[in-house]
Write a structure and sequence with these properties.
The protein is α+β, with helices and mostly antiparallel strands and 229 residues long. It has one domain: Peptide deformylase (Peptide Deformylase). It binds zinc ion.
Length: 229
């Protein structure tokens, strides 16, 4: 008891500046305390485009919502339902401060990726930079507890073919941070999360069940995440 009190005094003392290790320790405690109170998983409904288009707003799925593992169906018609859903996705992204988004993250079973305001409908990666140019990033994801960070290897450049929400085909080449962000959202559209990119199973202080939930399927999910075919 006396030792515990002494530690508190040491950490709180204004005459003993915190070293980097202690600062990290305090940050970890603070993040864990906040996130344990606020991280609440969702179980969003599985929505078709037509169903999504009848709604006023779309919510974000939060791990381990099963909808996050959905492999999105291709969009068959560029109609009013698609236009309305893309507008709802843009509004959801703005509300959550997301720079990018896949429709599956809102429970919508449709191959749609947003990057900023730009919609990629039925996107496919038609070319990638060479494997020797893979870049390492540290990524987070709004669908995952906030203490989860994963080192990923992403293509330096990807060429993407897609259509606009109006059905107009286009091809674009994204590089650097834009390529990374698109790849993150493209992963969501095929049910892949950043935790699948990790060599080992990822753990979360904010959601302690994560490691146990992921471990049995991690090797298979990692193969899918690393596949660059
Ligand atoms: Zn994400």
């Amino acid at each position: 008891m006396r030792r515990w009190a002494a530690s508190v005094l040491l950490l709180a003392s204004p005459t003993r500046p915190l070293d980097v290790g202690r600062r990290d320790f305090l940050t970890t405690i603070s993040v864990a305390t906040q996130t344990r109170q606020t991280w609440t998983p969702t179980a969003l409904p599985h929505l078709s485009l037509d169903q999504a288009a009848t709604l006023d707003r779309l919510d974000f799925a939060r791990y381990p919502d099963p909808i996050l593992r959905l492999e999105a169906k291709p969009v068959r018609r560029c109609d009013a339902a698609l236009a309305k859903t893309v507008a709802l996705l843009r509004a959801a992204a703005r509300r959550h401060g997301a720079q990018g988004l896949a429709a599956t993250q809102c429970g919508v079973d449709a191959a749609i990726v947003l990057l900023g305001d730009e919609a990629f409908v039925n996107p496919t990666i038609v070319a990638r930079s060479a494997e020797a140019r893979l870049r390492c990033w540290t990524e987070r994801c709004l669908a995952l507890p906030p203490d989860v960070r994963v080192e990923t290897l992403r293509d330096e450049a990807v060429t993407v073919a897609a259509t606009t929400a109006a059905g107009v085909p286009f091809t674009t080449t994204l590089t650097g941070a834009a390529a990374r962000q698109f790849s993150h959202e493209y992963d969501h559209a095929r049910g892949v999360l950043i935790i699948d990119h990790a060599y080992d199973t990822v753990a979360s202080t904010a959601f302690p069940a994560m490691a146990r939930l992921e471990e049995p399927l991690h090797a298979a999910r990692r193969r899918k995440a690393w596949d660059r075919a």
